[in-house]
Design brief:
With 139 residues, the protein is mainly alpha-helical. The protein contains six helices and no strands. It has one domain. 83% of the residues lie in helices and 0% in strands.
């Protein structure tokens, strides 16, 4: 175990935060499969892990791209370049799970809600950044 910790401590802060974020999001992505698609557990374990890892990385990339406007305005020094998209990714995922569980028990409905909430969050972030830019420009 100490060898794993030594290897982990050798990484820089960006890589550490990226790995931790992906591991945490991996745990959050298993919940929709348990709720909406339990038949996935009939497949071999490596296929389950591969699917969840692929969705985790894809979700993180999409939310990171959609977080660019707020990152450019809020995090100019790029100190929290992983923290902010990770927060939004987990927040959007949790909201999607709750909304999908309340209205339907379909995994495809969950995916549609997740994408819609991510895009809605992007639009809200654009509006907030635009208002902040306009407000700071007037002063």
């Amino acid at each position: 175990m100490s060898e794993v910790l030594n290897v982990f401590n050798a990484y820089n802060n960006f890589t550490k935060s990226l790995l931790i974020s992906i591991i945490v999001m991996f745990c959050f992505w298993t919940v929709p499969f348990c709720i909406f698609k339990p038949e996935i557990f009939a497949f071999p374990f490596y296929m389950q892990i591969g699917l969840v890892v692929a969705l985790t990385i894809l979700w993180f990339i999409v939310v990171s791209i959609l977080s660019i406007p707020i990152l450019a305005y809020v995090d100019a020094e790029q100190e929290a370049i992983i923290l902010i998209p990770s927060f939004f990714a987990m927040f959007y995922l949790n909201i999607s799970i709750v909304v999908s569980y309340y209205y339907s028990n379909s995994f495809t409905y969950f995916l549609r809600v997740a994408v819609a909430i991510a895009l809605l969050g992007f639009i809200i972030k654009l509006c907030v950044v635009g208002l902040l830019y306009r407000y700071t420009k007037k002063k």
